[in-house]
Amino acid sequence: MAIARGYAATDASKPLTPFTFERREPNADDVVISIQYCGVCHSDIHQARNEWGNSHYPMVPGHEIVGTVTAVGSSVTKFKIGDHVGVGCFVDSCVGCAARDLDNEQYMPGLVQTYNDFEAAGKTPTYGGYSDSIVVKEGYVLSIPDNLPLDAAAPLLCAGITLYSPLRHWNAGPGMKVAILGMGGLGHMGVKLAHAMGADVTVLSQSLSKKEDGLRLGADHYYATSDAETFKALAGTFDLIICTVSAEIDWNAYLNLLKVNGSMVLVGVPEHSVPVHAFSLVPGRRSLAGSMIGSIKETQEMLDFCGEHNIVSEIEKINISEINEAYERVLKSDVRYRFVIDIASLKA
Ligand code: NAP
Ligand code: ZN
Questions:
Q1: Nearest 10 degrees: CA dihedral of 122, 123, 127, 128?
Q2: CA 20 to 30 Å from 294, out of 140, 158, 193, 271?
Q3: What DSSP string runs through 90-112?
Q4: Ligand 2 centroid to residue 233 C-alpha, Å
């Protein structure tokens, strides 16, 4: 067993603190990764604070992991020592399950999350990327394109794939009007990706304070949702709205911005349920849908797409000791646009 150092939540109401734990011995099909950077996702906050009611403690959050391979098991063929790799939101899935679907493994019941879960045997807790090393099965490790800076590529492993997957599924591309609701960690990646796919992109943000950034990152239009005029001006406009907001907002008001046959896809996950009126859907044959991350295959496709289009996240790099303050800033929408932990700061 190797000793790993990290930061953990020990309880829903306490700040994260330094934590030492053991990483399992690598098996023949495992890759050992020295973690260099880890993005800070809003889901880390939801789970560290038990807002989804499924938290196990101690919890080492972090599922936007990038680093360098330091060892590989004897049957590993895809990776070698020194490779730049990533690990996203899950580290195992329904192996041997009859319904196993490699194009949609994120929706399979046997999914094992990178943290706040238990590995295949159901006994060993999984600990995430707010730590200096991780041991992951080869099939759940991603290759990071050489031309992408490792620190700014980290958020692609969750924020990137979470927007790429629904944009692809709902065929974002030329001639399509796409709105990204919320210009945060997920939202700003949605702007970059939808723009690169050729869609006409609108940001719907609470205010116009990030308008200049939104337009620079690829948005064609930018509106404030605090202005009631926005909802009049944009009624019936969009083919696709991707909602990254985790607050309980009025989904009916946004559904009304869809064209006939338009879809609103939820990726943000509010703590409580939100009522939807049938009249928000029925008269326009509109759909309200959800989407969760993407498969390993699609995540690699997204990384390669980002490599081709030189897409990475806009980041603010922090030391791990600043994580609790960073959480507070994410909650105030005060991050431009993703915090990334420099894991070297764990060793300082
Ligand atoms: P984030 O950086 O905090 O971004 C969320 C954005 O929502 C904020 O930047 C803000 O944008 C907007 N917002 C915040 N409070 C709001 C309010 N009261 N009313 C309206 N808009 C508000 O968070 P994130 O990391 O992007 O994650 C967003 C959500 O997605 C979280 O619930 C997270 O758990 C979830 N998530 C889901 C998946 C998935 O697979 N489905 C994957 C990762 C994360 P403006 O300032 O522009 O208004
Ligand atoms: Zn995430």
A1: -10
A2: 271
A3: EEE--TT-TT--TTSGGGSTT-E
A4: 33
